[in-house]
Amino acid sequence: xxxxxxxxxxxxxxxxxxxxxxxxxxxxxxxxxxxxxxxxxxxxxxxxxxxxxxxxxxxxxxxxxxxxxxxxxxxxxxxxxxxxxxxxxxxxxxxxxxxxxxxxxxxxxxxxxxxxxxxxxxxxxxxxxxxxxxxxxxxxxxxxxxxxxxxxxxxxxxxxxxxxxxxxxxxxxxxxxxxxxxxxxxxxxxxxxxxxxxxxxxxxxxxxxxxxxxxxxxxxxxxxxxxxxxxxxxxxxxxxxxxxxxxxxxxxxxxxxxxxxxxxxxxxxxxxxxxxxxxxxxxxxxxxxxxxxxxxxxxxxxxxxxxxxxxxxxxxxxxxxxxxxxxxxxxxxxxxxxxxxxxxxxxxxxxxxxxxxxxxxxxxxxxxxxxxxxxxxxxxxxxxxxxxxxxxxxxxxxxxxx
Length: 402
Fold this sequence. Notes:
Layout: E1 6-7, H1 15-30, E2 51-53, E3 56-58, E4 71-73, E5 75-76, E6 79-90, E7 95-98, E8 104-109, E9 116-117, E10 122-127, H2 129-160, H3 166-192, E11 202-206, E12 211-216, E13 223-224, E14 234-237, E15 241-248, E16 261-265, E17 274-281, E18 292-299, E19 310-318, E20 323-326, E21 331-333, E22 336-344, E23 347-358, E24 362-367, E25 374-376, H4 380-400
Parallel strand pairs: 1-21
Antiparallel strand pairs: 2-3, 3-23, 4-25, 5-20, 6-15, 6-19, 7-14, 8-10, 8-13, 9-12, 10-11, 12-14, 15-18, 16-17, 16-19, 17-18, 20-24, 21-22, 22-23, 23-24
Helix pairs in contact: 2-3
């Protein structure tokens, strides 16, 4: 977002005198001998005020206030560097958030904040009766499978001897198959959470990926449950790559397609820039901010960038229409944006404009101004106040005329 635009203040009765004194003071600083006492030099005469004619503010030749009004030429908006607000977050494709699968109490901590871990490394150990129940279910299923296999063996021998019917053999085969399936299910469940064949109620929280522990919300003796709300117990991520969340406008989407590059700047490193690439663009506009979420990725091998840093994404955009002027040239008159165009030496015209895009240093004007026209970019607010004062004086004089 651009810096706050100047807004035109209400006129005070002493504005004319204050403006004249400011102009005289500025001009006095440029003149030799201005600091001499009144005995040596007579006081300077107050210059004639500017007047409004045909909607234009005209200054007398040599008016000292003209030295304060710097101008800049509007240029065609072809290749424009657009700055968009952004925020750094963890790369979710290289991040794991670890929650408890069973209720339990923390008995041992194996990892701390900032520690590098490998995939499969234990982070903490819980004493969990619920996990012990799962281990017991596996042991029971294994015992039942052994029993069903023995029963099937006996039924097969009896069937071959003609003692039992075929349906009894088929029932024994079905029971054995069910027991095998139950063993596979129970064993897979305990293996998923690191349990072996023993029933020890020891549940290990392990890292599923290699990286760095960037968040820890667990302490020894703490009770945890899988249904409790709150942050993850551990967050493990690879900080050598970060995501960038960019808030873009509709007009910026043509330059923020997947694969397009951008330059990232952060306040923590003035003058430094980091190259990134767009990876995804949202399909909906945020109704509150009227922006579109764009996601990018930026390499961070030296780990200088940190998650949750605020940043600015600088994007080069090509524009077919509009002109670019300094942001300081824009004045807010009520709800209307205006600029002051220098028509000729000492002659200025107020021009209503429509903004296409606002930036901290430059503004793109969609209509109301042509390329090559000179706009007041220094002390534009002073000129706006002078313009208003001259218009009010002209109105008073018109009413007083017979």
